[in-house]
Amino acid sequence: MKNLCGIDEAGRGPLAGPMVVAGVILEKEILGLNDSKVLSEKKREKLFDEIKEKSKYHIVFKSAKEIDDFGISFCLKSSILEIMQQLQKFSNNFLMDGNTNFGIQNLQKEIKADAKYACVSAASILAKVSRDRFMDEISPLYANYNFHKHKGYGTKAHIEAIKEFGRSDIHRFSFKLKALGEGSFEIQKSLF
Questions:
Q1: Which residues sit in the known binding site for a divalent metal cation?
Q2: Binding site, residues?
C-alpha cells in the first residue's frame, strides 16, 4: 500500500530501560525487511541506516519512569498518537502491529503485521535497534547489570543481579517479579 505508515514497538516487556515506538513510511523499496526479531543484529544494524535514508520516520522513547507513572498502555497510545501527528502530512493511513488500536481513530491493527508489511517491518527494526543502542550506551553506567548483554529483559543473569543489587533508577518498579516473591506478596500485604 502506497504511503502506508507502519508502526511497531520494542521493549514492552523488559524489566529495565525504555519502550521505543517507531513509525515508518517507506519512500523507496528496501530488500531484506522482516520482523526485527527474526533478523540478526548485524542485519538489523545494516537495515537501520538504509531505512532512515529511504523513509519518513518518527521514533518515540518512553522511559521506565513514564511507564511506572502512567502504565504501558498509556505510554504506547501516546507514542502512537505522537507518531501519527508527526507523520500525518505524509500519510493518513496507519497500521500498527498487534491486536489493539487503543481506540485510536484511523489506526488499523493486524497481528504479525511486522512480518507481512515492509513499512511495519521497518518500524520494528528502527524501534529495536534504537532501543538496543540505548541499552548498550547506558550499560557502562550500570555495570552491575550488564544491560549490553540482555537489554533489560528478564534473563536469569539479570534477575540474579536485581536480587543482589536491587533495582536501579532505569528499572521498572511497577513490573513485579515472581522470582523475587513480589507477585503474591504485594497482594497479601494489601490485605492488612
A1: 8-9, 97
A2: 8-9, 97
